[in-house]
Design a protein that fits this description.
The structure holds 2 protein chains of 2 kinds. By secondary structure, chain A is an alpha/beta fold. Chain A contains 7 helices and 18 strands. In chain A, helix 1 packs parallel to helix 4, helix 3 crosses helix 4 and helix 6 packs parallel to helix 7. The relative contact order of chain A is 0.16. Classes of the chains: A alpha/beta, B mainly alpha. At the A-B interface, helix 1, strand 3, strand 4, helix 2 and helix 3 of A face strand 1, strand 2, helix 1, helix 11 and helix 18 of B.
């Protein structure tokens, strides 16, 4: 069985489409999206008379036709941002009242995930490729039910999923981050949550962990050190492990055959922890490049046959 | 949940993992400034070899070096803006170079490697030409596949050649810190030991321990040390410049003679040094750093300057998200700041050296030492150790304690620089392991986060080359090969940057630098082309001109380069074949998945 695992696409339309096409392209049996699928930023396209203005990557742009606006919206979506058409008055009101931004963010995220699920249903209809989507700490809870409603994608969070005799258990909850995101737990509570999930696996050695946060100190979790004001310490040269002790301990304790992770975009790599192959394909979603892991599994032996980290 | 950029409400962000405020300009400056290190690289080599091109204009060469490296900075800052988290030359080249451009680059590298290697190994012209043609075919095949030439150029420039830098770093430590301190402390046995091959090898091993220790212990602590080193280094450099400014040549002449008599028992060392250089090194007194012009000899100085000034882009691997053109400007300003501040300091240093030491003496003492140290002449120099400029300046103060303090504080330039020697190498090894070119064990880390196997993969060749550097006659003369291999890597990256807008337009057009054009041409292509042409010329000069002591005039140099590039290609080919037997297709690593 071949699984195709990608994560942290953060709203990038082009990465999502590549993910859905990867099953046929790489002859995968199962597609797994590891979470953090929603965007982090909205780009206002501001009406100015008959034209539209926006600033993208420090470039001030003026668009004069509807076709230009549509093309720009696609470009913005491909980078993982949400394009939103606003009036100048709305922009000023938003700048003054962040709660207005909150409301629109939620609406854009929900709309985006609904659209992605519709695309998935359309693209994967009629194929034998399974698709598992597991939200993570940057994803608000509202998207879980949207994924559940989808026809072909299956919600991974807290569900034991059988994969030809192997059991995949997933959680997008992480240890605390400096950003205070949606799904964070102290290490001890995260371990309790993991232990509960593992109970659903008849044989932990034949389990696949799909835990968003990588194990602490695994090299899959190296991130630039930040100061209290969220600035890089030593220009990003100072890397520190920020993964989860609970996840590491659980991997070493239960010894699943495979452990899939994301969360740390710079932490691309694969390491052996005990008998477990732990993988973080990393993410470069803003470039429109889908980083992923292709893992071939021997379902009879319950082992990893081979793996490859790709940039697609 | 949300945060709003109130200054420019052009982007609304929500709290999400990874959103940071980005680089500070000082960080970018710091990397660049310490990488084109005025003391450890500049004074050690590039600012010490003017006597080898006596008719070249020093000031013109310094300024020209800054100008051409400005284009290198624009090229790299542009690539950072296009692929900000891409991991430097390796990913840029593997993402951009394939097909015809990749094959072309591979053919060039393949031809020169095999053609020159065949000549170096004593084969006839015809056989060498056939070898060169085989190099074209092999290199083109390797470059056609995405990832092939990118791996070879990156592995050689960011991994293999860093093993040669270990003994060079060790040699710098020896002649800039250890030998001056041993002399000032009057430790006779130490002077004898460190002047020997065993001493050279021992200091190289010590340097390897420092470099490995910085990787093993993590960079967080070392990065703090680096920042302190910048300030300490600048402060003591300012003191040195003031001393040079307020002293006269006569004062220095007397101080130098006194110190040389006291430390080494050499009477009248100032005049003796010039006389020795004239007699044994072909030194011609009478030049001046103020000669300003653009004659052919001035251009011959540029490849010598590249040993030192080639690396303002060294901190090219960045992190972070939601970036824009502002980051391009910030990174570029940082790189250019480091480059041009260093060029400015070098100009001041050269002028002050002429004023305080005397231009003839300054060049003679360097000529005298370098010719002997690299085995170009067998005649002994007047002084048993190098006339390290901070040591010379310290003689102006008639206090052994102050002299020691000055040399120790100048050690900050080494300490703040040497720890990063193998950081890039281990990251390159990780990247190759993740791409399955190397065994996965190469990326393994211990429970304490130490990448032992990656470290061994760079330490072992580092120790071997350190041994050769210390004990193999003529091997230390390959110093410029260390820069040549890196220049070839930068050449490949600059070439990739030049073709980027046309070869990978999707990638380029989405980037914040797509709007920067000159006469309708993309700025990154113009800067990349100039850098490519310049580096191509520099590499050609290094390979073909006997002035530089490497290349076709030095069989050992060509053999070494052939091993380096041959090994890079061999690793790639063996990995592809072996992985195929495992059912792993390395082509899939870079295969673009269709979006529609």
């Amino acid at each position: 069985m071949r699984i195709f695992y990608a994560t942290d696409v953060h709203g990038s339309d082009i990465c999502w489409r590549k993910f859905l096409n990867a099953g046929a392209f790489h002859k995968a049996d199962v597609l797994i999206m590891g979470g953090d699928m929603t965007g982090k930023a909205m780009v206002p396209i501001v009406a100015n008379g008959s034209s539209w203005e926006l600033t993208l990557q420090d470039q001030k742009l003026t668009l004069t036709t509807e076709a230009e606006v549509v093309a720009m919206e696609k470009r913005i979506s491909d980078r993982g941002y949400y394009p939103i058409r606003l009036t100048r008055e709305e922009v000023n009101a938003w700048a003054a009242d962040p709660s207005l931004v909150d409301v629109r963010f939620k609406a854009e995220i929900v709309r985006g995930v609904e659209r992605w699920m519709a695309i998935a249903d359309e693209k994967l209809r009629g194929s034998q490729i399974r698709c598992i989507v597991s939200p993570a700490n940057d994803d608000m809870f509202e998207i879980d039910e949207i994924i559940e409603r989808a026809t072909i994608p299956v919600l991974g969070e807290a569900v034991a999923i059988d994969l030809d005799g192997l059991t995949m258990i997933s959680t997008g909850w992480t240890n605390p981050t400096p950003w205070n995101t949606f799904r964070e737990l102290p290490e001890d509570q995260l371990r309790v949550k993991i232990d509960e999930l593992v109970k659903a696996a008849p044989d932990p050695h034949r389990a696949i962990f799909n835990f968003h946060v990588p194990p602490y100190g695994s090299n899959l979790d190296n991130a630039p050190k930040l100061d209290a004001a969220m600035n890089y310490v030593s220009g990003g040269q100072a890397l520190i492990p920020v993964g989860s002790h609970a996840v590491r301990d659980a991997i070493l304790h239960y010894g699943p055959l495979l452990s899939l992770h994301g969360h740390i975009h710079e932490g691309r790599g694969a390491v052996k922890l005990g008998r477990t192959l732990a993988v973080n394909p990393g993410s470069t979603y803003e470039d429109g490049v889908l980083q992923a892991a292709i893992v071939d599994l021997d379902t009879k032996k319950g082992s990893v046959k081979r793996y490859l980290l790709i940039n697609g | 949940m949300t945060s709003v950029n109130r200054e420019t409400p052009s982007l609304f962000l929500r709290n999400a993992t990874g959103l940071v405020k980005g680089w500070s300009g000082f960080d970018a400056f710091g990397y660049s400034f310490m990488s084109v290190n005025l003391v450890t690289l500049g004074m050690f080599y590039s600012l010490a070899v003017f006597a080898f091109v006596p008719k070249g204009s020093v000031l013109s060469a310094l300024l020209l070096s800054g100008v051409v490296m400005t284009f290198l900075c624009v090229t790299y800052a542009g690539l950072i803006a296009v692929m900000p988290r891409a991991g430097g030359d390796y990913v840029w080249q593997t993402r951009i170079l394939d097909g015809v451009p990749g094959a072309l680059l591979g053919a060039i590298v393949g031809f020169f490697t095999l053609y020159l290697a065949a000549q170096a190994f004593g084969m006839s012209g015809g056989v060498a030409l056939v070898a060169g043609l085989l190099g074209i075919v092999g290199g083109a095949a390797l470059g056609w596949k995405r990832g092939g030439i990118g791996f070879v150029l990156s592995a050689t420039g960011w991994w293999f050649i860093l093993a040669l830098w270990a003994p060079i770093y060790g040699f710098i430590l020896k002649i800039e810190v250890v030998q001056p301190l041993v002399a000032l402390l009057g430790w006779t046995d130490g002077s004898t030991f460190f002047a020997s091959n065993n001493g050279t090898f021992a200091i190289s091993l010590f340097t390897i321990v420092i470099a490995s220790g910085a990787v093993a212990l993590g960079m967080a602590g070392y990065a703090r040390v680096q920042r302190w080193c910048i300030w300490i280094g600048l402060a003591v450099l300012a003191v040195m410049f003031v001393l040079m400014l307020i002293s006269t040549q006569d004062t220095f002449h007397a101080a130098f003679d006194k110190a040389s008599q006291s430390l080494f028992g050499v009477p009248g060392a100032y005049d003796a040094t010039i006389a020795n250089a004239v007699a044994n090194d072909g030194f011609a007194p009478g030049g001046s750093p103020l000669d300003f012009g653009l004659n052919g000899d001035t251009f011959l100085l540029l490849p010598l300057m590249m040993f030192w000034i080639l690396y303002p882009n060294w901190g090219a691997t960045l992190y972070g998200e939601v970036r824009g053109a502002g980051d391009f400007k910030k990174v570029l300003r940082g790189m250019l700041g480091g480059l041009w501040v260093t060029i400015g300091l070098a100009v001041v240093f050269v002028l002050l050296a002429a004023k305080a030491f005397g231009w003839d003496f300054f060049n003679a003492t360097n000529d005298n030492f370098i010719n002997n140290a690299y085995g170009y002449v067998t005649a002994a120099p007047t002084l048993p150790i190098w006339g390290y400029p901070p040591l010379l300046v310290s003689f102006l103060i008639d206090s052994r304690f102050v002299q020691i303090v000055i040399v120790v504080l100048f050690g900050a330039w080494f300490v703040g620089w040497a720890g990063t020697l193998w950081l890039s190498s281990t990251r390159m090894i990780f990247a190759a392991a993740f791409d399955r070119v190397l065994p996965e064990a190469a990326a393994r880390v211990s429970d304490r986060g130490v990448p032992w196997i990656a470290l061994l993969l760079i330490m072992v060749p580092g120790v071997i080359l350190s041994w050769l550097y210390a004990y193999q006659a003529g091997f230390s003369a390959l110093t410029l090969d260390a820069s040549l291999v890196i220049a070839v890597t930068f050449f490949g990256t600059s070439f990739a940057a030049t073709i980027l807008p046309w070869w990978k337009p999707d990638l380029y057009n989405k980037s914040p630098i797509a709007r920067y054009k000159l006469a309708g041409l993309p700025m990154i292509s113009i800067a990349g082309a100039i850098t490519t042409i310049f580096l191509g010329w520099v590499v050609y000069e290094w390979l073909s001109n006997s002035l530089y002591g490497i290349g076709t005039g030095n069989t050992q140099s060509i053999e070494f380069l052939a091993v380096v590039y041959g090994l890079g290609a061999l690793v790639w080919v063996v990995a592809r074949v072996y992985r195929r037997t495992q059912g792993i297709d390395l082509d899939a690593i870079h295969a673009e998945i269709p979006a529609e």
